[in-house]
TrEMBL record:
Protein name: OsmC family protein
Organism ancestry: Bacteria, Pseudomonadati, Pseudomonadota, Gammaproteobacteria, Cellvibrionales
InterPro entries: KH_dom-like_a/b, OsmC/Ohr_fam, OsmC/Ohrsf
Amino acid sequence: MRGKVTWVRDVMFVGEAGSGNAVVMEGGRSNNGVRPMEMILLGVGGCAAYDVVSILQKARQNIISCHCELDGARPDTGPSPFERIDMEFVVRGCGLKESHVARAVRLSAEKYCSASIMLRNAGVEIVHRYRVEEA
């Protein structure tokens, strides 16, 4: 996996992934891009949500939507790495079995989500929750 981050101006940068996709990042002054720590938080949510959806689809669950609400706690003084991340998956579908959703979230947390496992191994407390909504 490769990437490149290029300074544009002031505190704005463009990150280009090896896949060819790009994202604007910035340091927080002008709010013209995603902050780097926000990227980490979103990356964890995206990685885990991908796992949950994939596992539920393989289990032939009739999933209509899924999103992951994230809340990252950091100290007020720098450097300020994440100390805790709360993740709540909201899964909506027709006749979803709660046991399947619980299993998907657990498998993502314990086995599949490289991003959350990496952060957990670095000492970040990660809490996973889920909510099932009938469509």
